[in-house]
Structure prediction request, 575 residues.
Amino acid sequence: MIPISYFIVLSFILFFLGIVAFFVKKDLLTQFMAVEIMLNAANLAFIAFAKSANALDGQVIVFFVITVAGAEAAIGLAIILLIFRHRKTIKTEDINLMKG
Amino acid sequence: MNTFSSLTPLLIIVAGALLVLILEVFLKKEKKDYLAYISIVFLLGSVYAGLRFWNQNPSYFNGKLLLDNFALFFIFILAIATILVTLISIKYIFLQNTNHGEYYALLLLALSGMMIMVSSTDFLIIFLGLEVLSVSSYALAGLKREDPLSSEAAAKYFLLGCFASAFIIFGLALLYGVTQSTDITVFVQSFADPNLSLLAVAGIGLIIIGLGFKIAVIPFHMWTPDVYQGSPTPVTAFFSVGPKVVGFAVLIRIFQPYWRAAVNTEAVFAALWIIAVLTMVIGNLIALRQTNVKRILAYSSIAHAGYLLVAILSRDNAGLLFYLMVYLFMNVGAFSAVIALSKKNKEYLELDDYAGIGFKYPWIGATFSIFLISLAGFPPTGGFLAKFYVFSTAVREGLITLVVIAVLASLVSVYYYLRIIIYMYMKEPSRDITIHTENPALFFVLFLCLYGVLQLGIFPGNVLVFIKQAVASIL
Prediction:
């Protein structure tokens, strides 16, 4: 059996890749996908911990997180669409009416 | 006491939101203010249902949802905030072309999320409540559909909000791995173990970072000014109070047991100390060079989060609750005054617009000035007493350096608060300002907030009794 530490290390790597992508990428959709990767890193950690402790609740939590991610995607895509309708672009450097 | 009836305050709010959503379909665009009155009825009903549980400590779902006095106190604060925001929205959304029926339903749903957050010690439930709050807030921020600023605010709030949620849920996953539980009390007990796994420390750190985004402390504040500026103004008032109040409620739930149980608190203490100092100093300094009133109030709300963190550090829960109560009235009051200065499809938000307002509209000028000096912390307003309680407890706990920095920072803040007052009373008006004055609900809110600020500043006794009972329930 694969030891649990492998899964945890993988989930940490995914989480940090998500953070890096969030700051490096310059477009709203890709940044949103980076956040989804961070959420899935948490899901992986939950499942790995639950499996290693033979507990079910960790696996149930994953369903909650998936639901949350779905709700966020629904509202997020609507907002990104709204932005696109106003400016015909979703590049972050063009979304700069407010600063200071 | 395990009883289904402990869900009533929450269920009333959710039922109200759904009813408002259904009725929205049947009402003509001009008659949508009925929805506001319906939501106020439901809000008052929920407050009444909550009052009946004071000192009863009911719970349900195996204690996952509990209405101790602490939770009830926060439910009252949040319900009052939502009532005030609903009242100031009635005319505003009509004048600013934001009159979509879902507005009030979203406000109520956001409130239901906040109520879930304050009435649980299970962090998974808190996270789910936070998401109910956040998803409604993203929609509220972007509700001024024709305004590119509003959609920009929604996009920024959405991206950074999701980012923060991901931190919280990953931190929760790590703590779950260490403790096999999602309950805050179990988390905290695990910190009593001297050979604690590093995962738990990382977990609590990630959760605090995530909450830091929500309560807008520096360095996690970058979304705040833009979101506050772009959102519809009543929604901004709601954001400046709601998420901040619940964020601090959750922080109290974590730190109240943590400071006593944990074996090694120095690192967390030092991190919070630095965040508090940065928030107070930088928040106030950046506010100095803002010219948009909404942005000034945004940075002021960041700075206030710093003062509130001082209360967390000095373990002064009663002072923190009192501060939040005062903060609710003075901040909603200030934003109401900003809303008062608007007309059809036009809001006056630049400092230059405020020149001469104090003589042209004496009531708005006078109340706005009182809210501003309360935010700055002058007696006899509530803002002074709140700061006095928090800082004096911090001195008694030996945090002298922190208090000196806090007092100096609030001295800096006096400059930008008074600058608005100087514009209102001592500058010649350079532009022709006309406003829409038939707005009884808004003036009622201005009066209520004025009453709240002065009552809490001069006779705080009754409220302090309530606060003592609320704090006693989580000891």
